[in-house]
Amino acid sequence: MSKLPTGVEIRGRYIRIWFMFRGKRCRETLKGWEITNSNIKKAGNLRSLIVHEINSGEFEYLRRFPQSSTGAKMVTTRVIKTFGELCDIWTKIKETELTTNTMKKTKSQLKTLRIIICESTPISHIRYSDILNYRNELLHGETLYLDNPRSNKKGRTVRTVDNYIALLCSLLRFAYQSGFISTKPFEGVKKLQRNRIKPDPLSKTEFNALMESEKDRARTCGNLPFTQDFVTGNWQLWRGRMWISKRE
Questions:
Q1: Taking the chain (248 residues) in consecutive chunks of 10 residues, what is each chunk's mean pLDDT?
Q2: Where are the domains of the chain?
Q3: Residues 63, 66, 70, 75, CA torsion sign
Q4: Reported CATH class of domain 83-177
């Protein structure tokens, strides 16, 4: 007998295939299939087809194996296929967990995501690269204030975009844990890096102009922190002592 195809096993008088589904190794015996080279090849093809269906989010366990006890445990009572359906069921569940104000803000964010991603988009088709494209659209695209269109503008802050993407990843993580999708497109999505604002100290010309405009005592107070490298706390203490000595 030739080498068995990947995922095909011989157990006694039966041909059996195995595949990964929702993070678990599932095994199914092909009852009524005699152990012949032709059937072994067919089993390999069936297994390849099942793997393809799993990866594309189209696999329905009990349709392939109606009598499977494993399939009965893996099946869900509700099938969610589109992004709009996912938003609806996620919102309904989260309403019992989140405060009213948080839920109001979250629904507003979901409204934007529904437009950018499109409610009819199959969640099984959303890939890691798609999430990055959604992020770019949020970062550089126009805001979507439907209630007040005049306030719309181009682009959003990095922090705002990170919040939107974090919400999207939460939705997709929920979809994966619920068995609605078999992949993890949310893995590896990082926060955007923010540009740190560089300090803008006084130039030498600006400092000299400032000192020239002050009187002697004020000039001394302004000059010392720059030239002597005073720590802020020590500088305040020194100024306090000067004020006390002036009163005395």
A1: 86 93 88 92 95 83 86 70 93 86 93 94 94 94 75 86 95 89 91 71 68 59 53 54 52
A2: 8-74, 83-177
A3: positive
A4: mainly alpha
